[in-house]
Amino acid sequence: MAVLYRKYRPQSFAEVIGQEHVAQTLTNSITGKNISHAYLFCGPRGSGKTTIARLFAKAINCEKPDGAEPCNKCSSCMEIMQGRSMDLIEIDAASHTGVDDVRQLIEGIKFAPVKSKYKIFIIDECHQLSKSAANALLKTLEEPPTHAIFLLATTEAHKMIATIISRCQRFDFKKLQISEIIKKLEFIAKKENVKFDDSALSLIALNARGSFRDAESLMDQCINFSGSGATVKTDDIKELLGIVEVGQISKFVDLLISKYAKNSILFLNEMAEGGVDLPEFAKTLVFYLRECLLLKINPEFLNAKGSGLSGEEIEKIKSQTAGLTDKQIQNMLELFIDAENKMKYSSIIQLPLELAVIDATNAE
Ligand SMILES: Nc1ncnc2c1ncn2[C@@H]1O[C@H](COP(=O)(O)OP(=O)(O)OP(=O)(O)O)[C@@H](O)[C@H]1O
Ligand SMILES: [Mg+2]
Ligand SMILES: [Zn+2]
């Protein structure tokens, strides 16, 4: 089966989701023929940096562009899509250990393009360039040949040397929104002819944490798990991801609300003994309490699509929080956010949760 993230990598600016600010400025510079020698794409993983870098490269070397869009038919476009263009050199600074190779490659930008208008370098994870390679890059950026374009991408801009950053036009990519991810997942599901339960796609999107690559690989796993032709169920995804059952969280919140400190702690022990991943439990609990708070403030904030919760679960939250004030839920939320953070450093992983339980069950 095809790997989704390769199959559905956008081939035109129109297919890019989110990142409107980036796409807009880049397409304007293409149509206005106002192209810089160096761009820096910063932002979270799987947000489209490499995708947009390749698109931009393709568009500026395209023989028959349609406005700012590459034609995806000419020999230059084809070569880029097949990864065999002589005028587009991609370097992954993270995996390239041959320090001198990289330096030589960068210095090679002096030579004119083989057949296209521009010779383009995409340097991924450029914060990891070796010192000598970074210096070679800096020297080239100080006096770039007219045919040369550098597209630098990084998830960690703060680790780059300032002199390189200052010579680039910088774009900050955003984490993709859940609703944006869902939209593209729906599109892929249709194309792949796979059915998903209503809240299944939301659950995938939610667990991708803003990275489209992660969303697509989760989707891959789900399709493989359920088999083609079947409907992918929300429960399958939960099992696959080791997601803590919302039902369990809900029971735990019942105990907290009833102020049963002893039973709440016993419950945690049972969870831990039953193999539940406690950090995952804490994360889901915080997520759940947030939904409780949102629902309390305004029921319209919560819908099955955006939260990954089923209608039943939402009804349950409603009855559960009926007797509580906003402030009480807020306090609980703050206690468990704090516990979640402290778990990262605690030698007894359960302890921060237990302390939060005691505070929560003693609260007014
Ligand atoms: N903004 C987006 N619109 C549409 N699809 C996207 C977008 N961002 C990412 N994708 C999808 O996710 C996959 C990975 O994206 P890409 O390689 O561009 O991410 P990246 O930002 O370079 O991540 P990394 O920092 O991990 O290299 C792409 O193949 C594409 O299918
Ligand atoms: Mg990348
Ligand atoms: Zn073309």
Topology:
Blueprint: H1 4-7, H2 20-31, E1 38-42, H3 49-61, H4 75-81, E2 88-92, H5 99-107, E3 119-124, H6 131-142, E4 148-154, H7 162-165, E5 169-172, H8 178-192, E6 195-196, H9 200-207, H10 212-226, E7 231-232, H11 234-241, H12 246-257, H13 261-273, H14 278-297, H15 304-307, H16 311-321, H17 326-343, H18 351-362
Parallel strand pairs: 1-4, 1-5, 2-3, 3-4, 6-7
Helix pairs in contact: 2-3, 3-4, 5-6, 8-9, 9-10, 9-11, 12-14, 12-16, 13-18, 14-17, 17-18
How would you portray this structure in words?
By secondary structure, the protein is an alpha/beta fold. It has helices at 4-7, 20-31, 49-61, 75-81, 99-107, 131-142, 162-165, 178-192, 200-207, 212-226, 234-241, 246-257, 261-273, 278-297, 304-307, 311-321, 326-343, 351-362; strands spanning 38-42, 88-92, 119-124, 148-154, 169-172, 195-196, 231-232. It has 3 domains: 4-172, P-loop containing nucleotide triphosphate hydrolases (Rossmann fold, 3-Layer(aba) Sandwich); 178-241, Orthogonal Bundle (Helicase, Ruva Protein, domain 3), CATH 1.10.8; 246-362, Zinc Finger, Delta Prime, domain 3 (Up-down Bundle). It contains 18 helices and 7 strands. The strands form 2 sheets. The protein has a 5-stranded parallel sheet with strand order 2-3-4-1-5, with helices on both faces. Strand 3, helix 6 and strand 4 (148-154) form a beta-alpha-beta unit. The longest helix has 20 residues, at 278-297. It starts with a helix and ends with a helix. Bound molecules: adenosine-5'-triphosphate, magnesium ion and zinc ion. Residues 49-50, 124, 153 line the site of magnesium ion.
